[in-house]
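Pipeline run #58 for the internal structure catalog. This entry was flagged by the ingest filter as a single-chain record with no existing model, so it goes straight to prediction. Upstream metadata was stripped on purpose; only the residue string is passed forward. Reviewer on rotation: M.T. Logging verbosity set to normal.
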Amino acid sequence: MVIKLSGFNIYAKDPVKAYEFYKGLGFVFGEVDDMPASGEAPGEYWCASFASGVTVWIWNDTNENDTPRHSRNELVIDCGGLDGMNALYEELLGKGYAISKPEKQFYGGWEMNLIDLDGNKILFLD
């Protein structure tokens, strides 16, 4: 089973400033989806793809009362399709990992999750 890094999630109080921060570090972005227009409030999430093909999903992490909604980092792994995800699920389950069963998501794709020893989330996508 070959898996590859797909990207990572960033939870930010101000997603636009987070984007500018990473861009300022020298990351080259090839495409940005759903970026809010000037003066427009960011939605639930939007994403930017690095020129290398890795995607950064920047999530709006603020509730209406300014409290954070999330407090974890997420490594996002591409499983190369649902068959690969199911095979990886069985393999990791057999090794004793407490991994969630693959579930279909609101956007139509499939996900499964594993929490590492420090509480960080590893998100596997089909």
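catalog note: The first strand starts at residue 4 and ends at 12.
catalog note: Strands lie at 4-12, 29-33, 45-50, 55-60, 74-78, 103-104, 110-115, 121-125.
status: ready for reviewer M.T.
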